[in-house]
Structures are given as C-alpha cells and as structure tokens.
Amino acid sequence: MTLYLETEAEEGLLLYEKDGEIHKKPMEPAKGGLRVRVPVHVSPFRYCFLLPEGFLGSHGLEKTLPRYDRFFHLLAGSLPPWWALGTVYYQIFPDRFRQGRKELAPKDGEWLLMGRPIRKKAWNEPPGPEGALEFYGGDLWGVLEALPYLESLGIEVLYLTPIFQSPSSHRYDTEDYLRVDPHLGGEEALEALFQALEKRGMRLVLDGVFNHVGATHPWFQRALKDPESPERSMFTFYPDGSYATFWGVKSMPKLDYASPLTQERFVHGPRAPIRYWMRLAHGFRLDVAHSIGEGGTNRKNARWLRALARAAKEERPEAVVFGELSYDAIPTLRAHTLDGAMHYAGFAHPVMEWLSGRDVHGRPVHLDAQETWRVLWDHYQALPVQLRHSMYTLLSSHDIPRALWRLKGDVERFKLAYALLFAFPGSPAIYYGDEVGLSQPNPYAKWQGDPYCRAPFPWDEKRWNREVLGFIGKLVHLKRTHPVLRLGGLLPSRADKEVLAFKRRYQGQEVWAFFAPKGTRLTLPRGLDLLTEREVEGEVEATYLLFQPL
C-alpha cells in the first residue's frame, strides 16, 4: 500500500506493528505532504506516524507512542462491495409499511402470543403498548406497490426487518427460517419484490436473526421437551432448568454456536438461512450481532460474525453483511468481521443528544457542537479506513424513538439533523415515514421508542409534510450525484463553539458543511449552496449549509 499524509512536516516515519515489534520506515516528500509504500503483511494492519511534533494516530497528535488501539487500522482482503459505499438505505418494518393484499392480514384473535390473543388494528389507529401482539396487515406485495414512490425518492437499498414465519408482528422470534411468513405474501411475494428491485437497479437487505430463535421454533421445542434430543446442544440450559435468552426474554432462546448442529444449520449447511436466501437478497443485517457467540454468551463473537459474513459471500460475492452493534463497534470491525455496522455510538446517539438534549433513554444530556464533533471524529478516525463509507448511518430506527418526536416536532432542527446525516461519511438510512414527517403518538413525558416508533406509514398524502419530503429528496439526490459526499474523506474545520463544521474532500473537490441549531454568521468565498443551488459569497447567515467552493 502507498500511504499519503497531508502535513506541513518535511520529514517523518511510518511506524507499524509486525510480529509484536514496531517497525519504522522513512517517508518521502509528496505533493502536500509525505508518502510511504509498505507491504501489508497482516490484517488488520496497525500503523501511526512519527512527525517532528509527535506521534499521529487515530486520536490525533500525542507526545508518546500511542496504544495500539490508538493506531490507524487498515483491512486487507475481503472488503465491502463497491455498491455499499455511501449508498442510500430505506428501512421498512413490513407489517407497518403498506398493505398490498387485505386477505393476507391476520384476523383478530387468530392465535395466541404469550397466552394472549393477537389484535388486528385499523391502519390509521396509533400503535399501543401491546406491541408484538398488534398487527396492521402490511405485506411484501405492499412494498412492491410502493417501489415507484421509493424509486422517485432516490432510494438505492431496502432493508426489511424480519420477514420469516413468526407469531409476532415484529418477527424477531422466528419459528421457520426457510419460510417467508404467509401473512407477508410468502416466497412468491419476496421473489416478485426481488426481481422488481433488480430491474430498477435497487437492492434488498434482509434481517438475519441468528442470535436466538423463537420459543415456538420446532428445534427449541424438541430441546425443551427432550433432554436427549440432538437439538438440546443448540441452546444453553442451566441446572435449574432455565435457559439462556436474548435480554432475559423467554420467548427468544439464545443459540449456542459451540454446537456443531448450530454451526451446520446457521453457518455451514446449504440450508443455513444466510446462504439459502442469498438467491433473493443482496445482503443481511445481523440482529444483535454483538451478542452472537457460545455457551449463552458472546464468547468467540468475532469468529462467528466472520463465519456468517463469509457464508453469505460464498453464495453471493457482492453481498453486504453489516451488524447491529449497538455500542462500541470499533473492536469488532477491526477484527475483520463485517462490512459495517449500524452507526449508533459514532453518529446517531451523539447527534441526537446534541440536538434534543436527551439521550436515547430520555436522560438529560448537555453536549455543545464541539463536544459532539469530538465524538464523531473519534469514531471516524478509529474505524478501519475501508469501512468508513459502508457504515449504516442513521437517526431513527425501529428500536429507538423517532428523531422528529425526540425534537418535539421541530421541523427545522429535524431538517438540520438529516442534512448532517447526508453530509457525513457513511451510508445514510431513512427510517420509513421520517421523510414525510411521521412521528409517535406517545406524549414526550412517556419516553419510549418501541412500540410507538412503529406506527403505520400514512399513505394519505394530506398527512405528509411536503417540506420535509422535498428536503430529504434533495439530500438523497446530492448524495447520489456528488462523489465528494459519497466517497470523500472527512476533515475538521475551525468553527465557533456552537457550530459543528467539517469538510469532505474527494479528488480535488470539497464540500464544506456547517450546522448551528441557533444560527450562525459565516464569511465564505464564492461558492455554491448545494441545497438551494444558489451562488453565495461573503457574509451568510445559516442554521445549516452544504457549501461547495468555486
């Protein structure tokens, strides 16, 4: 690899770890800085620079040699597919997006879930506290019908929350991984959707719930009833008769990847779902990826994430596999495991804490713009270089409160948040309905995401916020048509304490981004305001601005 460092220093050394030793290699002058060519002998490849003013690693300049976790990290070998770099995602919760065939919807009380009858709700009825028991009747035929709308918005990839047979509306308690839920239209609907997406040049990512199964799954039922059954090894049972679960939820018994049978059925076998469905999908998002492991824990987590990703790519080499890594994703992604992660810790959480004054759990938080920037910059620099643009970068999801609700309906601040999302490196993800101003029915005093963040999409266009829809459509267009926003690097910019500012740079082009919820005055050279397509120069007042110098 040839590494370039933009610097005013006239000399420097590359320091890299090899076989437990730190090796040094002199750098040579290059336009705008220094460069060095070095063989990448291991992945991840860990390196930093020694300059006259100190050591430069992922945490910036330091006077002493940084710890290895503060080096830069470079991956070699299998990398995210090209199409997943800076792509625009749209997340759909199938039961709540659109109903294509009314006859597929579950009937009120049709079966029991956790001993209680399910409820069939009217489409415009707000979600209530029963969550998993509430069905609205959305299906994959409805998603297919909505493709013209999604295509006009500029969406490139659909991510669907689970679609396989399950007794709940969220379907994270799978009872058959090889059967698309009949209430969603079955495999016929999935195949029709997949083919339609391919014709439009769009892609499909499915939700892989491979940390746990549903308690109604036949494998778990056999394990529960017969201690001598082969399936018993697939789960972790304790002496008191209890068993390992996801988050203590008994309806979601946790898989044990130490079991050869689990390995065969979820990783290596031809009917492992991550392999089986690659014929009708372009990738998987791995649910609670940070928890997958052995013995009722996440022991050997990196090994099994690596194996799952490899299995998908053996069936479809251009597949993308990213994880729900809800906390610090850096160690996992440095371990050569996945193509990226849902960017909660490094984007969604700090941005929404700054703009709303509350964390994801509703606790008061006081972050200023510069403190927020430091969190974003810290995670960005710590990520492996090749994964920075494939991170699934978000503001809202099916698991956390919607961004507009957290901002108390403040549309201007909501637009600022989405402008920041699309200006930042990564693959921006729109949670269904955000683009038309969909919020939540619960009062702000009752701080909760799921199940209230899962309201049905309002297909009555009179309920749409056209201003928000047009604005997000513009952001999607900019992301797709400006390589500097899609693939450009990230550089800090000096700004006032209440302004979050940075630059994106790619092949000689730059975009300057400014975000100031309370407004700010900027002095700019001649350039283009990308959101209004107007030329500006001199004194400019703005709350957010994407500026391209001319």
Task: Spell out the key features of this protein.
seven-stranded parallel beta sheet, alpha/beta, 550 residues, 28 strands, TIM Barrel, Immunoglobulin-like, globular
Q: Care to describe what's here?
A:
This protein is of the alpha/beta class and 550 residues long. Among the domains are: 2-74, no CATH class; 77-321, TIM Barrel (Alpha-Beta Barrel), CATH 3.20.20; 489-549, Sandwich (Immunoglobulin-like). The protein has 15 helices and 28 strands. The strands form eight sheets. A seven-stranded parallel beta sheet has the order 22-21-18-15-10-24-23. Strands 2, 3, 6, 7, 8 and 9 form a six-stranded antiparallel beta sheet that branches. The protein has a four-stranded antiparallel beta sheet with strand order 25-26-27-28.
Kindly state the percentage of residues in helix: 10-25%
Estimate the strand proportion: 25-35%
How many helices in DSSP terms? Answer: 15
Distance between the termini: 33 Å
CATH architecture descriptor of the domain at 77-321: Alpha-Beta Barrel
Q: What strand order characterises the main sheet?
A: 22-21-18-15-10-24-23
| Residue-averaged pLDDT | 97
Q: Which term fits the overall shape?
A: globular
DSSP summary, beta strand count: 28
Task: Identify the CATH homologous superfamily of the domain at 77-321.
Answer: Glycosidases
What's the Cα radius of gyration? 24 Å
Uncertain residue ranges: none
Main sheet characteristics: 7 strands, parallel
CATH fold description of the domain at 77-321:
TIM Barrel
> Class by helix and strand content?
alpha/beta
**Name of the CATH class of the domain at 77-321:** Alpha Beta
